[in-house]
Structures are given as C-alpha cells and as structure tokens.
Amino acid sequence: MLADLDLRPFATDLSSVRGVRAVALGGSRARGTHHPDSDFDLGLYVDGDVDRVSLAEVASRWSDGQATIAPAGGWGQWVDSGAWLTVQGVAVDLILRDVQRVIEQCERAVAGQFQFHTQPGHPLGFLDVAYAGEVATCVPLSDPSGFLRSLTEAVRPYPDPLRRAMLENLWQVDFLLDGAQKGATQRDVGYVALCASTATMLLAHGWHASAGQWVLNEKGLIPNVDRLPLDTHGFSVRASELLSSLGSVPSALLETIDGVRELPRPDPQAPHSDRNVRGRTPPGDDETRGSAP
Predict the structure, then answer these.
(1) Are 20 and 104 members of one domain?
(2) 229 with 279: CB under 8 angstroms?
(3) Rounded CA gap, 221 and 228, in Å?
(4) Does the residue 256 lie in any domain?
(5) Is residue 179 exposed (0-12), middle (13-18) or buried (19+ Cβ within 10 Å)?
(6) Same domain, 77 and 47
(7) E strand or H helix at 14, and its extent?
(8) pLDDT per residue over 53-102, tens digit each?
(9) Does a structural domain hold residue 13?
(10) Which of 72, 213, 225, 275 has its CA 20 to 30 A from that of 65?
C-alpha cells in the first residue's frame, strides 16, 4: 500500500522537470483527516513554461499506466491542469498550479481580497484565495528553492483582513433571500433553491473565516461548520434540514426562506481565536478530485 513517505522520491523526480518549482501533499492526507482509501493529492507548483512532455514521462515511470498531463486550462480556468494516476494500486491526483497565480492569490488573501469564479465542478464558484489555503495547509514534499516556505509564512495564521472581508460579504445573504421571496410567489423552485443554497454556503464560509479555517472547495462546507472550534449554535443541522425540505408551493418556499434568514450567523465583532492560529481546515474528507490539492 502506498504511504506518504513513498511519495517523497516521486516528488523529487517531478521537481527535476524544467519549470516545476515545488511539490506538496494536499487534501485530507495533508490535514490528517483522510480515510484508508482516500486519494493522494499532489500539488505541483509550476512556471508557465513547464515541460509537460517530460512531466508526463516522469509520471508514467511511477504510474501503473501511461500518464497524460492536461494542457494549460484543460480542466478549466481555475483548476487548470493535471493528471489522474494510479500508483501501487492507489489513486494519485497531480494538480498543477501556476506559481504566479499562487503568489498573486496569497497576496490578495493577506490584503483581504477574494472572489468566486465560474469553474466546472464548483457550483458556488472557485474561491480564488483557496490557492493561499492550499499553501497554508499543504505538506511540502520537495521545495528546493523555498518557494512554498516563503509563501507559508505570509498565510499562516489565517489573515485577519481576509476574515473581516468574508464576514462583511455576508450582506449578500439577505440580498439573495429578498430575491428568493419573489421567486417563491411564482413557484420558481429552482431559483429559490439556488438562492437558499448559495446564501447558506456563504454563511458557512463566514463561519469558517470566523474560526480562522481555510476553505478549499464547497464539498463538506456546510456539515463541517459544526466541527469548527467555536459555538456555531447548531448551524449545520438546521441548514441541512432547511435545504432538504425546500417545498414546492409558495407558503412552503417562503417558510424555508425565512428559516435560512434565521440561521445562526458568525459575530463580525468576535475576536480571532488563538486556537486557530495554524489556519488548518476542519475535520472532514472535503477534497474533490481534480480541484484543490
């Protein structure tokens, strides 16, 4: 069975390819929240001119089959590129990250700036500063130039400006729910469902930011709120109940909207807890294959 230590020589080989600056273990295995059958996620931090042909050759030597590296942008604008491998019978995902974009997003996170972007596989949108979260939570396997080490110092602990910005962004929750009310009177179940789920996920982002916890994608976002190291007043259970019983007639839809509006919200004035200075993500196997490493 493949073990974390087995990946270090693989990472060293990958780092020998022109344009590869660092290789890191990410996902649940980096956070220690993995299951025995969890995939291994390897983040490859690369320059724009990375030698993809040589990268595929190295990956193929380690893989149980021929490896193919997707072209730049082959997986979408924000997930970008990578490859699915099987090494010693275990799934290993290579996820390429452009170093300039990573640097930019780390700087934006420190400055309290973020944005969600349309990306296949990310229904809420890809959170651009998740790149900074990946740096903060990964385990470097090969970092000969100190690229990851220098960035980690900037994004650990979770930047307080980003925390404040995430909480300020919660003004959108009521804006979305006001719009959902209009859809409810027209029995527009799809629109109401989209507004309610988006509002709930934004609240979940706010709770994670309040706890100083990085979010890398939407999977597990709502259930993990109640695992955060602070009192979330039963947010996850109540949110799941509301979204699972949306209704289809105006009265039921409006009741759900009112319920979402009444969900517990993080206190924007609460101090940043010292318990969260490591910027770790909460327990839960929340990586999505092909998204954040």
Answers:
(1) yes
(2) no
(3) 11
(4) yes
(5) middle
(6) yes
(7) helix 7-15
(8) 999 999 999 999 899 999 988 888 898 899 999 998 889 999 999 999 99
(9) yes
(10) 72
